[in-house]
Amino acid sequence: MEKEQLAALGRGLSRVLAERSRQRGKPVELPAELGDLEGEADVELHVARLGLDFEEGQEHVVLLVDDHEALEGGDTPAFRMEISRVMAIALIARIPTIINAGRPLCPLCSRPLEGDGQHFCPGANGHSKEGIPEIGQGENEAGQME
């Protein structure tokens, strides 16, 4: 999952809880750790569509995920998971930390950089074979590239 997708998931969770939870605005005690999933979770999908719903009886957020194969075959959702309101709030609180720990973004195209800093960059328009300089490197006192 890319940073932008994770940030959008956090915004979606916040919106669903704000609009649908009967306990909205009530403080919660966040768990120290979210912990591992129970059982063996072995799910690998190339996400084509991500949806959220809310189960009002138990105050659970429902995550619905479809891959291209499920969409084309009409067999949706390919993956479904419920989490409690407290777990959703804990995830929302941790998303900024998760995003900041991820790969840095290219200053020209905003795509994630690989470990060596090399990637196909549309912002370079194919004219540069050099790696993208880190922000602040190679600038003179006027902030211009040397």
Structure description:
- With 146 residues, the chain is of the alpha+beta class.
- The chain has two domains: 3-100, no CATH class; 104-146, no CATH class.
- Helices cover 27% and strands 16% of the residues.
- The chain is built from three helices and three strands.
- It has helices spanning 3-20, 68-73, 85-100, and strands at 47-55, 60-67, 79-84.
- The protein has a three-stranded antiparallel β-sheet.
- Helix 1 (3-20) packs antiparallel against helix 3 (85-100).
- The mean pLDDT is 82.
Give the tags.
146 residues, alpha+beta, 2 domains, three-stranded antiparallel beta sheet, 3 helices, 16% strand, globular
Strand order of the largest sheet: 1-2-3
Whole-number mean pLDDT: 82
- Cα shape: globular
Q: How far from one another are the termini? A: 36 Å
Low-confidence stretches: none
Element string (H = helix, E = strand): HEEHEH
Q: Which percent range fits the helix content?
A: 25-40%
Radius of gyration: 20 Å
Total of domains:
2
Q: Determine the number of helices (DSSP H or I, runs of at least 4 residues).
A: 3
Number of strands: 3
Percentage of β-strand residues: 15-25%
Give a short account of the largest sheet: 3 strands, antiparallel
Which structural class fits the helix and strand makeup?
A: alpha+beta
Reconstruct the topology from this structure.
Blueprint: H1 3-20, E1 47-55, E2 60-67, H2 68-73, E3 79-84, H3 85-100
Antiparallel strand pairs: 1-2, 2-3
